[in-house]
Amino acid sequence: MLFHNELIDGLVRGRLVSHARGSILELNVGTGANFPHYPSSVSVTGTDLSHRMIAAAKKEAERCGIQAEFVRASVENLNFPAAHFDTVLSTLSLCGYEDPVMVLRRMRDWCKPDGVVLLMEHGLSRYLPVRAAQLALNDLHYRHIGCYLDRDLGQLLVASRLAVTRIDFSPLGITQLIWATPDPRPLGLSSKRSANAGPPIL
Ligand SMILES: C[S@@+](CC[C@H](N)C(=O)[O-])C[C@H]1O[C@@H](n2cnc3c(N)ncnc32)[C@H](O)[C@@H]1O
Fold it and tell me: Per-residue confidence at 200, pLDDT binned at 50, 70, 90?
């Protein structure tokens, strides 16, 4: 089971994270599970709330030969110049925030206009039976795991004014790999669908 999880997780992450380039901001870096998938030429600024996670991520960066520096802070308290990073990346984190749009807007602001925002997140499925199960389990899941199952990623991205260029869905439509750019269009136009759905992720 562990092998299965690692294999699937590795394949899915690699598919997204290998598209990162240049100077990278990775929010909520955790243990550095994305580091094995970065191209070798990148430089990463990893952030997380937890000392223990940062310590583990540092080790993983060294193991993978990735140039990295770390900031220990809550995402709400981070401060970077606007339009600073070539890639802004977050995986498996949006589900925990009380205000995910605020975080996505900050990600958009920190990304260069010609940069890319990369997300691997779980959200409400487009398949109605799966969606119904997610909604039914949401409160229980949040109470026990601290993670919301009912995030509508499409709506969050529109509200954050990120222009989606590609989305790959898992077979049940829950996990989504998202490629987006800071949306330069005036408010209102950004709600038009810009995503090209890619192939399913596995
Ligand atoms: C589910 S883990 C995901 C870790 C990693 N991104 C991955 O894909 O494996 C969530 C991470 O977010 C961090 N975290 C949770 N809330 C945070 C916050 N408000 N600000 C900064 N880090 C936070 C936790 O310490 C943890 O490392």
Answer: low
Domain boundaries, the chain: 2-191
CB atoms within 10 A of CB 23: 17
| pLDDT tens sequence across 37-48 | 999 999 999 999
DSSP 84-147: -EEEEEEES-GGG-S-HHHHHHHHHHHEEEEEEEEEEEE---SSHHHHHHHHHHHHHHHHHHS-
Q: How far is the CA of 71 from the centre of ligand 1 (A)?
A: 13
Nearest to 28 by CA among 81, 75, 60: 75
Assess contact for 28 and 94: CB atoms under 8 A: no
User: Contact, 38 vs 64, CB < 8 A?
Assistant: yes
Strands, sheet with 111-122, edge to edge from the N-terminal-most edge strand: 67-72, 43-48, 23-27, 85-91, 111-122, 175-182, 162-169
Residues contacting ligand 1 via CB (< 6 Å): 28-30, 33, 48-50, 53, 74-75, 91-93, 96
* Residue 27 half-sphere exposure toward CB, CA atoms < 13 A: 31
Query: Which residue's alpha carbon is nearest to atom 4 within ligand 1?
Result: 30
Query: What is the domain class of 2-191 according to CATH?
Result: alpha beta
Whole-model pTM: value is 0.90
Q: How far is the CA of 185 from the centre of ligand 1 (A)?
A: 31
